[in-house]
Amino acid sequence: MLARKIASLFASRSAAPTPSRLMQLHEYLALLQEGTEEFAAGERIKRDALSLAQRLREELRLPLGPEPSLELVLARRCKVQRISLVHVPLAAKDCFFIAMYHQDASSAHAHLVFDIGAEYQRPFLECPDFGVGEEATEDNLRHWIPRLAEAPDAFAIVERRDGTYMQVYADDRGFHLEHQLVTTGCHYRTAQPVSSEAAVDTLVSYACGKYEWANRAWDRMVL
Range of 167's domain? Predict the structure, then answer.
């Protein structure tokens, strides 16, 4: 009898779900490149995604309003890996907490916060020390960003929407880049300082919606 109890205990431990991890943006984009299709997620999965968002509310500083109805929790599925992407709407307009589920899984293995609305906004460049506030075009970025090396206390921000932006400053080690997705709980910086040229190229990629910037090595910051 004791042996059965011990075996049962170890079986229950091995069946415990793996905690969901915060996915990097380039990983999410790779899933989308497979192609996605509409998917009618069941009530159980939708409720699990809502519960996960609530559990991560403080850690990710999620702007959650009243719990949305299940009809507002939408899902798509990757055509190749069959991963379900369950979208929980946040209080910020067109922003979502996205929980990801392997086929037939009952709990999420990864999650991400994403600002879909930012994809349709014109990015804006601000550099207060230089008195700059203008559209973040490639020409403007290539003109102003290298000048940060001459002003160590200066910084520049390319804002796509409130809470979703990329910023840069320079010191004697090089240019330091940071970006944020919706909240301070999803704030990242480059693993190493970069050159002036690399900083400009990254910001141009960000402002133009090309997403090469997402493939850089980014470390999450705890603010």
Answer: 119-221
Residues 130 and 202 in one domain: yes
Phi, psi of 79 (to 5 degrees): -70, -30
* Domain boundary pick from 93, 115, 137: 115
* Angular region, 193: left φ>0, alpha ψ -120 to 50, beta rest: beta
Kindly report, residue by residue over 126-171, the tens digit of the pLDDT: 999 999 999 999 999 999 999 999 998 899 999 999 899 999 999 9
First to last CA, the chain: 51
Spell out the long-range contacts of 188-196 with Cβ–Cβ below 8 A and sequence spacing 24 or more. Answer: 188/218, 188/219, 188/220, 188/221, 189/218, 189/219, 189/221, 190/216, 190/217, 190/218, 190/219, 191/216, 191/217, 191/218, 191/219, 192/217, 196/145, 196/146, 196/149, 196/170
CA–CA distance from 18 to each of 14, 56, 109 (Å)? Answer: 10, 15, 7
> pTM score, two decimals?
0.86
Same domain assignment for residues 11 and 91: yes
